[in-house]
């Protein structure tokens, strides 16, 4: 198999701007999702007050989007194999637009929940397809950077959501939160039209036998004809097509399913040893991304800061903006580190930092909660600092690596639906934390909740250390080899790090 990195030359070191443009447009759907996540943290304050809902209903409202996203992501895997990556992004935009309109209209809790459920299905589509599309149009040299753009989009969206909370929080109780939620329909519609101007994934086209179209697109997303030809040969080999065949149209072998049929059997019932380890790694990293408790901070930061001693709606909302700014800054930094430092090293450093930040946050919240005198300014300050530190370490490593790593490790035929399983687990864990955090901290105290998250983070560090080989600089078609030896693949990772 030809490895792009092995072909050498200066062209392989340059970022192809057309490929970058494709990834940026695909990542716009992630900005819309991030906005919904960020804006809901503040909107819930006003929704609870106007609709007179209790904490259990608040938890359900926060988490139901991710329950629906779970089903959306599973559906999106098969959909993207059938209609293509580009039209799947279009579908996600339309679904999310409908959900946003309903949430912005919402005269009552029932309609609000319906809109949030519909938006959740769109979110599931978006989270599954944007990184896959970005990975499939990227060269190995810049795949980490371009595949990280959806995560950067989420951070931009979260920050915009927090800013929207502050901007619209001064409007009337009835109008403010509806504008916060409904305004997301506008960029959704714009993206639906914008994505139709983008090319289809060349790897999906090869799976359909449309080699001529795939070659034309590869020439645009590569820096030279030599690079495009090498990438096409790798994709053909991965798809089981003769690398010397005519690059026009090849009728797919009827024994080789091209629309995703039979993939579940290869993933779950009869996986090869390499595919089994890949699936464990993908499901594991998506599980731990939210099991460490990040959603508790993103969605409930006003409550956390209130517990720490900050009072007043506007002060709480402004403190939450700091979470969004921190998230954006460190995801932005990570986009430049993924292809230089590597996925594995960033992941391990990030998780270690998460453990330390959560331990400090848990300790400070416990001290504040058990102190009954004057406000402890030092403890309040440490709570804010450790919260921002947690968000910083999370977003410089674990957050972007989760999406980059799991989008690149699956073999071509299994990528879309295998990745969708990881996203489904991701949404399930997101929903679990979103819908249980209030109940959890009421049961074991808010400090105890963050100590629990710290303990889970320790388990995550060892999981990553033993099971995750480095994928930096390898073509998508070469990565399966890294998992062929199971846990011993770690030796390859350590060698790559050096």
From TrEMBL:
Keyword Transport listed: yes
Single GO MF annotation: symporter activity
Pfam family, one: Sugar_tr
Location within or outside the cell: Membrane
Keyword Membrane found: yes
SUPFAM superfamilies xrefs: MFS general substrate transporter
One Gene Ontology cellular component: membrane
Domain of life: Eukaryota
Residue stretches making up the Major facilitator superfamily (MFS) profile domain: 22-472
Keywords, sorted A to Z: Membrane, Sugar transport, Symport, Transmembrane, Transmembrane helix, Transport
Membrane-crossing segments per the record: 15-35, 60-77, 89-107, 113-133, 145-163, 175-196, 277-299, 319-339, 346-370, 376-406, 418-438, 444-468
InterPro entries, per database record: MFS_dom, MFS_sugar_transport-like, MFS_trans_sf, Myo-inositol_Transporter, Sugar/inositol_transpt, Sugar_transporter_CS
Mode of membrane association: Multi-pass membrane protein
Main subcellular location: membrane
Protein family: Belongs to the major facilitator superfamily. Sugar transporter (TC 2.A.1.1) family.
Protein name as catalogued: Major facilitator superfamily (MFS) profile domain-containing protein
